[in-house]
Amino acid sequence: MPMFAEVKLPAGTDHASNGSSRPGSWRNAMRPTQTARRVLPALLATMLLAGGVLAGQTVTAEPAAAAYTCNVSKLKADARKERDRAAKLKRLGATTEAKKALAKAAALEKRAKQCADADNSSRPPFGK
């Protein structure tokens, strides 16, 4: 008894007809799902863009209440305190903490320099 029933093919063909002219082309039988996997995400993105979900809505930034101002003297004082703390830690033998304190002091000094440079080179608002 055969396991599978034999299928009669139309005359002149030697392969199953799945909409393809190539024998053994089973990939074309799945064509509608492949097309759907490509088209649906593009269609969804288009609908979201048209509806304003992704980029259609314009978001206006709130104006800053006041310009950010740096207290340069406070930043420099904090950096000095960190350098003193680093020296004390180094004398006590805590070298890793001393390195961290020195790095923090350097960052504070760098920020103070940036603030001072920004204060010196910034233009006043237009019309003033």
Give an overview in words.
The protein has 128 residues and is mainly alpha-helical. Helices cover 54% and strands 0% of the residues. It is built from three helices and no strands. It has helices spanning 31-51, 72-92, 95-121. Helix 2 (72-92) runs antiparallel to helix 3. The longest helix is centred in the C-terminal third of the chain and has 27 residues, at 95-121. The chain is elongated, with a radius of gyration of 36 Å. It starts with 30 loop residues before the first helix and ends in a 7-residue tail after the last helix. 5% of the residues are buried. The mean pLDDT is 75.
Instruction: Quickly give the structural class.
Output: mainly alpha
Q: Report how far apart the termini are.
A: 100 Å
Indicate the low-confidence ranges by residue numbers. Answer: none
Helix content: 40-55%
Please describe the biggest sheet, giving its number of strands, its sense, and whether it closes into a barrel.
none
Tertiary shape: elongated
Please tally the helical runs, counting DSSP H or I stretches of 4 or more residues.
3
Q: How many whole angstroms does the radius of gyration measure? A: 36 Å
Determine the strand fraction and express it as a percent band.
Answer: under 5%
SSE ordering? HHH
Number of strands: 0
* Arithmetic mean of pLDDT: 75
